[in-house]
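Here is the promised in-class demo. Please do not try to memorize the tokens; focus on the logic of going from shape to residues.
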């Protein structure tokens, strides 16, 4: 279905995994699981605000667990053959957890446990997937391939999501009885799980890691590799400054992706409007990610990342203005977010990949993933706490997300682009 002309076999197979996993995050994590969780919990007598808070705290907990595992996983996968081995394990964990979400009679607590298992597996596959970027392409093509991955991920995820959401849409529009709600959601989950597995096969079949060490794989050596990087902070200073900046701004990006449905629900925006909003994000994000990559080649990664951060700040200000009689503003938010969402993720990934020494790229990607996962802790925790213990509206709470955005942009300005680290000049940085 996706020919992806102009790419090598390994590049194409790598991009296809972005198509594979994007369907899961869109259909399950972003759209339907929050709806399913709240529907089941409220049917069992739980308070709506309590359910929202639990979901937000759970999102933070998932991020914390992945953050603890990622650096050691990153160090373990540098050994020959380990990337594929651990990718299979994490993929299996994610898919098995997702399959349990399909069971129609599962209670709320069981659903949340299955969601945690599946989300951990999903996130850990992405740690390994991102680290493959240095194996499958060159520094010169990294921005393009990373952007194509995100762009194709957006358009590819629309296909299974559209097919899977048809029964749920029929329920939403009253064509099917509301009693079919859970079955319709289970159908959407099955489609996204099957899509995830099917488009994972090319990566498992065609992508190979480059051998960079003759050391024996062991947890001891993995821990040693992580500690080595920590000791050499000054040597890799530009990389660590960027990672802290990334932690701050990607915190907001992750929150927008994963919490859009919860925030929309608390703003009393109907499910139909939310589905349209998410569709707009996906449709706009596809060409925008590709365009973002092309402009990066012309004007530089730092300038494009700065532009994306500004657009996110504007989108938060628009969310602040949404009220019951101005729900149409959510569509403006969708266009703004869609225009930079894929680009900021893709260029952050490729900018980082070009920055790190190749012989230590796996350990660095493990730590990079930690920063990405930790960035998924702060905003959900902050919003959950504000919901639970203050009288602030969701609009007012979201304004607090401009703080990590600004701090991330400020630190990004201190990243010295002339000190890109590689095997030849690592000792001079």
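The designed amino acids, position by position:
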């Amino acid at each position: 279905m996706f020919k992806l002309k102009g790419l090598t076999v390994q590049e194409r197979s790598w991009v296809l995994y972005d198509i594979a996993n994007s369907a899961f995050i869109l259909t399950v994590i972003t759209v339907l699981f929050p709806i399913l969780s709240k529907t089941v919990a409220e049917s069992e007598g739980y308070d709506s605000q309590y359910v929202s808070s639990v979901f937000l705290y759970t999102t933070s907990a998932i991020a914390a667990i992945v953050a603890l595992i990622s650096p050691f996983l990153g160090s373990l996968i540098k050994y020959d053959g380990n990337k594929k081995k651990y990718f299979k394990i994490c993929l299996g964990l994610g898919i098995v957890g997702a399959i349990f979400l399909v069971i129609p009679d599962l209670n709320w607590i069981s659903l949340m446990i299955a969601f945690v298992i599946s989300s951990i597996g999903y996130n850990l596959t992405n740690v390994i997937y991102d680290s493959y970027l240095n194996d499958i392409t060159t520094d010169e093509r990294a921005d393009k391939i990373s952007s194509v991955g995100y762009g194709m991920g957006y358009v590819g995820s629309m296909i299974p999501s559209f097919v899977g959401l048809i029964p749920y849409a029929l329920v939403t529009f009253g064509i099917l009885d509301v009693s079919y709600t859970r079955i319709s959601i289970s159908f959407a989950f099955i489609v996204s799980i099957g899509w995830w597995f099917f488009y994972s096969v090319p990566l498992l079949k065609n992508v190979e890691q480059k051998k960079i060490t003759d050391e024996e794989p062991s947890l001891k050596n993995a821990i040693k590799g992580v500690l080595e990087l920590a000791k050499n902070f000054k040597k890799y200073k530009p990389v660590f400054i960027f990672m802290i900046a990334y932690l701050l701004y990607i915190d907001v990006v992750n929150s927008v992706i994963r919490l859009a449905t919860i925030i929309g629900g608390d703003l009393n925006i109907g499910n139909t409007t939310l589905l349209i909003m998410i569709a707009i994000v996906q449709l706009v994000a596809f060409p925008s990610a590709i365009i973002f990559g092309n402009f990066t080649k012309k004007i530089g990664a730092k300038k494009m990342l700065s532009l994306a951060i500004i657009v996110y700040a504007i989108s938060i200000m628009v969310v602040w203005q949404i009220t019951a009689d101005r729900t149409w503003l959510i569509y403006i938010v969708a266009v703004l977010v869609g225009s930079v969402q894929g680009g900021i993720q893709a260029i952050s990934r490729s900018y980082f990949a070009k920055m790190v020494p190749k012989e230590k790229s796996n350990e660095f990607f493990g730590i990079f993933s930690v920063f990405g996962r930790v960035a998924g802790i702060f905003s959900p925790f902050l919003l959950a706490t504000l919901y639970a213990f203050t009288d602030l509206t969701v609009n007012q709470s979201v304004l607090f997300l401009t703080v990590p955005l600004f701090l991330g942009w400020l630190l990004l300005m201190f990243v010295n682009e002339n000190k890109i680290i590689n095997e030849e000049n690592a000792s001079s940085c």
